[in-house]
Amino acid sequence: MKIVEMSLAGVFRIELDPRTDDRGFFVRTYDRQIFKDHGLSTDWQQESHAYSKQKGIIRGLHLQLPPFTETKLVMVIKGAILDAFVDVRPESPTYGKWDSILLTESNYHCLYLPRGFAHSYCTLEDNCDVVYKMDNIYNPQFEAGIIWNDPNIAIQWPVSNPVVSAKDLKLPTFEEFKKQYAALNFNF
Questions:
Q1: Residue 147: inside a domain, yes or no?
Q2: Would you say 89 and 124 are in contact if contact means Cβ atoms under 8 Å apart?
Q3: pTM for the full model?
Q4: Which of 37, 72, 147, 151 qualifies as a FRET site for 100, CA 20 to 30 Å off?
Q5: Could you report the per-residue pLDDT of 99-124, keeping only the tens digit for each?
């Protein structure tokens, strides 16, 4: 397992090391000690599995507000996604910036996303399965988000006409989000 820091503060790509033979493969997807050695959260409270049945679905940008912010460990077990995220921590040197990572069932990469990020992804294939761990309990009263196509963030999505939920289409722009939640502290 190799842990590589990405361009936004606190975000890491986890490169897994599968052992393969004629039967298939075995791969360790999480190792508490290796994460601890890199100063990464290891106190996972929940794990979720999301299935998307078609290519071109965008989920997000989602996040939990304090005190229910979440660190996430994201992995694709079937299919491929472009995972995109925005730093919403006002104290961060990368505040308001976005980055992305390609996660596929065959590249054996995971995304470690610290608290204070709006998270989303776009399916690149039909029948995608995404599994992620969170270090906090989900609370629906504290969910928030940012519209997927905010022109001021300008995420470079691989689709121009995605499938987006009605709920996600009502999310605010980043400017509206900042006005509404300016006083919140996302760093813990």
A1: yes
A2: no
A3: 0.94
A4: 37
A5: 999 999 999 999 999 999 999 999 99
Q: Mapping DSSP to helix (H, G, I), strand (E, B) and coil, where does residue 114 land?
A: coil
30 is catalytic: no
Give how many domains the chain has, as a whole number. Answer: 1
Tokens of residue 38, six digits: 């890199």
Question: Structural domain of residue 158, as residue ranges?
Answer: 2-181
- Mark whether 119 is an active-site residue: no
List, in sequence order, every residue forming a beta bridge with 143; answer none if it has no partner: 64
Which helix (H) or strand (E) is 174 found in, with range? helix 174-181
The DSSP symbol for 172 reads: P
186 part of a folded domain: no
Q: What is the pLDDT of residues 7-30, one digit of tens each?
A: 999 999 999 999 999 999 999 999
**Residue (of 161, 153, 148) closest to 121 by Cα position:** 148
Catalytic pick among 30, 51, 62, 109: 62
Sign of torsion, CA 107 133 153 93?
Answer: negative
Q: Which one from 108, 112, 121, 132 is the annotated catalytic residue? A: 132
Q: Encoding tokens for residue 50?
A: 């999301």
Residue corresponding to tokens 């995304």: 111
